[in-house]
Fold this protein.
Amino acid sequence: MFKIDEDRSYARLFFVLAAAFALVTAWAVYEEGWGRREYKKVQKDFFRLERDIAAKNLSRACFGAGGDDITRLRMENLVTHCTALGPAHQNLTKERDALRVSGGQRAAAAEQVVREKAAAATEAEQELSLCRSCYEEAYYEWTQAKHQGQRDLAKRQAVLDTLQKQLDELRAVANRTAASLQEATQWATELTARGDELTRQLEQKEAPIKEALHSYLALSTTQENEVVQRNLPELGRVDRCETCHMAAARPGFETVVSVAFRSHPYRRTLFALHPVEKFGCTTCHGGQGEATTQFFAHAPPGPRNLDKHFFADSMLHGPEVESNCLKCHSAETELRSELRCESDAECTQPGQESELRCRVPRLPMAPLDPATNLLSLSVASDAVKYCVAEDGQATKVDLAPHLSRGRKIIDEAGCTGCHAIAGFAAHKDGPDLRRLASKFSTAENRRWLEAWIRAPHTLHARGRMPNFFPTSRAQAGEESSAMAAFLVAQSTPLALRRLPGGSSQEHGRARVTELGCISCHELPSGEKITRVNRGSHFDHAPDLSDIGSKTTVEWIYGWLKDPKAYAPGTKMPSFRLSDQEALDVAAYLANSVSVHAPQPVHPERSAAKSKGNTIEDCPSTSSGRAERERLANSKRAMSPTVRMTGTVAQGKWLVEHYGCHGCHEINGFETRPPIGVDLSDFGAKDVTRLDFGDAIVDPQKQSWEVWTENKLRHPRLFAYDRAPLRMPEYEFSEEEIADVKIVLKGLRGRSHDAEVKGHELSATDLAREQGRDKLRAYNCAGCHTVDSHGGEVRSAEIYSRSRNPEIPPPALYSEGAKTQPNWLFHFLKAPSEIRPSLKVRMPTFGFSDVEATQLVAMFSALDGATYPYFDNPPYPLSQVERAEAATAFQIAECVRCHPQSGAPSPVGAPALLHLSQRLRGDWLLKWLENPAALNPSTTMPSFFSDGGAMFAAAAKNDRNHPDAEHLGSLSVEQVVERLRNWLMTQ
């Protein structure tokens, strides 16, 4: 029945709507306050953790080592117990209180005596002052009477004498009273000294308890939730990461289990170089900095997530964070620095063991930090702590170890031979093939060459030559034969040297050992050294264990005499061998003809291959078939004018096709460009531009990381009939693949962050990095300890065995501060003998002027030394000072280790010749004062450190020099300066 509006009831509708509105309101309030505020729960958990840590610190401070077990006390009683324990040092408190009671009367008596003595001393001083005034008055009157000729002069003289006698007596009384006062004061001080010392000890031990108590009480109250926001207007972003990661910039959370609540590793050093208020968090870690929920803040990678949620940048995890360092540090291979710290936990990465301990360095730090070009972190005071090793020295730690290793792997594998990569210099590290025929002059040698091209890792497991035939075994023999034929045919003939008389393989073996060839090569002896400076498993130089199988004794002899005659760009130096020495070494090496089956470098990968886990056998791909058909398809696609008509022509096409000219010098290929794509922005490449072929067809499994890892693992995995691939296989380990991937991920072109916060190298920094490139290229750390890299050859048996008479190559500590730039430049160009006793010799690398200049500039930059012009000031010496210096030289018996001629030294010390042209005088002065401070590994005794006690004892016991006792009375500074001036003027 129709009702008018006045008769209708809307109560139910209003009730339903009101209930719905109330529910919606409640849901909105909950969602806004809790559902969309995920950080509140995170902060609540962090506050609880923070209070637990504060309570544990307080309990440990109160109860010592047993304080970790805080469950034995109820937490509400912890504060009371800590305070009541006095705190926790009852013995000291009882002793102090007992001393105060028992010594109270004596202390009061002492204070009374001091007051009485002070009053007596004051009275005596007043009487003395009054008498002195009377004496001065009488003296004045006597002087006036004398000048006026008065007759009572004798009477006045008698008065003056009487006053003088009284003055002397009062002065004696005043002195005795002052001495008595001093004794009383000292007695009173001694009575209270022990109490003051106990009070000081108590205050010192109570300080950490008071600090822990203050921290605990401050956290006992309810803490407010808040959004921690970093505004970064220069970078155009807002970071709220610290809203959840509240401990990132705080100490004391280094060992907590939850990564979200852990202190940032190496935070004191990293945050000093990259302040959070200027760099934020997402600059390095990526992610969505403005989000306050885990999912949106971390922005998980994947095409679906990126498309659905419009993530601009997903968060990087673990070592992948290091890839962002390339944005600003593309010109630096290693980012090393000493680590500032306050506790041992700050000296290690989470989950890793470290031998570093947080201590004050044993020796003073260098005034210029040689590790980082961003900020000098040198010690400002004796109390500054660093992460130090067992020897007490502050140790440089690589802040981006995976990135550094990945850069080394790319450089050592020769990736720039085919690919242009920003921040990497293109270079050809493979042997020069333009005179190949003279090296492979026999049929047996050429068979070795074919086997090497076909499967290099079966001959030398650590060789840098990659495998170009990982799948197409049927074509490997034909193609390797064709390539070998062409390489020999294109070779320019080279007349080999005529061999001299008879040779001795035993002498050759000895010379190979003494010269330190093992620092770069694997030797026929089979001895190994620990290669700690390499990033990859590849050797620095060719394996010589079977060199007799691939060449002749004539070629080896000519190579040893003059390597650059065969290969002008080779890094192999000349050891300036005599004809007989070169012949002996050549005969020894040429006798090494056993082609061995090397042990696999990566056993896990070899085991996988033995089970059929290879590209060719992979059932889910057609890459094996595609690779076998690649050559036939390529031949059909060639025009008739370039169709291969013979083995040599086929080999030439294959050499060009595989890009062999990227690593090797080949006649006719000097101007050919590399065949690889430019990888300078590969890290920013969208996954849709990556061709997965038939290997991975599921879009859910396709990602940049998956493609890159598989490309490095099996380069031709993604090949198919229309996309034949030619990248060879390098047999990278899984660790090497992960580190190379980090570098590739960092190659994103020029970014806005780099434009705003990018680190531009100064001229000094650039010189240092260019010199470091030369150090790595020529493997200087294979022999020398240089730039904080240990000399690898020191682990060889000839140097490591006990009672070894051999002397290893010297450590190059503070070489820039030590030597003059002009001398060092000419020494690098043409080395001369400095340590006559060393059997290992500094070879002639044939550095160009530019290379030698870069090395000299690097050494100077590492030490902050004056460069490029330096002249020693004059060092004047009087005849007496010269005689004293000569006597000091004889007392210290310097000539026992340092020959003043070309005679050998029993300990390998350098000859003291031409020091004024070779050394810097200020360095020599510091060296004489304390050699170990400049070179921790030196055997030079410290005659003048610790106040010169060692030299003083030698001077006292010396009976051969009449001036010895006089020298012992001189200061250390005087003796050292005289000795330095005398040495520099010889």
